[in-house]
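Allow me, if you will, to draw on your knowledge of protein folds for a short while. I have a record of one protein: its chain in single-letter code and its fold written as discrete structure tokens. Could you please explain, in whatever detail you think fit, how the structure tokens follow from the sequence? The record follows directly beneath this note:
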Amino acid sequence: MMNDFNKQVIDEFRANEGRVGGMFEKAHLLLLTTTGARSGKPSTSPLMYLPDGDRQVVIASAGGGDRHPAWFHNLRAHPKVTVEVGSETFEAEAVAVEGEERDQLYARMVAQAPQFAEYEAKTTRRIPVVALVRAGS
């Protein structure tokens, strides 16, 4: 079950200052905690990210599925999020990136993690790109 998998990744991330093994061993990984769009409850998702200056960029790929991931729906309703990178935790605002900048960031993510090209090819939806901007930046 995906929730069990995510829980294992989250636990390993927190126990090892942001380092995990397996398929994420060399990846840039962060934990994104959103507020449920309907439930109002916090929900944490491990996500690969693209460092971009003082912000982190995440891709709402859902592995190429036809629907946006739940975390994306949550941050559209509640854009204030909590981000964990390494051993650091901070508040951020999630901002959707559009147009040419979106395309450039997506291409950079593909260069870093080629599976994102496969995700884009598997779906007809436009996969959202989201910048996580640290509060106070």
